[in-house]
Amino acid sequence: MSVSFNGCNEKSVTFIADDELTAGVPVKVSENDTVSACDAGDSFCGICTSVRNGYATVQLGGFAVIPFTGSTDPSVGYCTLAADGSGGVKVTATGGRSLLVVNVDAASDIVGIML
């Protein structure tokens, strides 16, 4: 039997999108009502799931899958993650946010997290 966390407690909000924003990346609130892609080391508020007509849908809660980079793989359980500056996340000792990691695919460098 396999387990799926898709849709679990998912929450999304619409923001104004920074001109450079693309879907699938961790985002931060960069100015009033506006999100932009995170720089390396930034704490992220959510994952941009779509961009259209100058607006972004941002997933703020629930299960999300995102790529990870860095010399340390995330571990299951609570792990502190920050944006890696290239559209994914990385394990960090400073900054970032503590999130529940429910699965890690080290071969594909993808992590499943609860926001």
Description:
The protein is mostly beta strands. It has two domains: 11-61, no CATH class; 63-114, no CATH class. Helices cover 0% and strands 54% of the residues. Strands 1-3-2-4-5 form a five-stranded mixed barrel. Strands 6-8-7-9-10 form a five-stranded mixed barrel. The model has no long low-confidence stretch (mean pLDDT 95).
Structural class per helix/strand content? Answer: mainly beta
Strand content: over 45%
Instruction: Give the terminus-to-terminus CA distance.
Output: 25 Å
Number of domains: 2
Largest beta sheet: strand ordering: 1-3-2-4-5
Average pLDDT works out at 95
Low-confidence segments, given as residue ranges, are none
Which of globular, elongated, flat, extended, rod-shaped describes the shape? globular
Note the run of SSEs as H and E. Answer: EEEEEEEEEE
Radius of gyration: 14 Å
**H/I helix tally:** 0
- The count of strands amounts to 10
Helix content: under 10%
Largest sheet composition: 5 strands, mixed, barrel
Keyword list:
single chain, about 120 residues, mainly beta, 2 domains, five-stranded mixed beta barrel, 10 strands
Task: Please describe the topology of this protein.
Layout: E1 11-17, E2 26-31, E3 34-37, E4 46-52, E5 55-61, E6 63-69, E7 77-83, E8 89-91, E9 97-105, E10 110-114
Parallel strand pairs: 1-3, 6-8
Antiparallel strand pairs: 1-5, 2-3, 2-4, 4-5, 6-10, 7-8, 7-9, 9-10
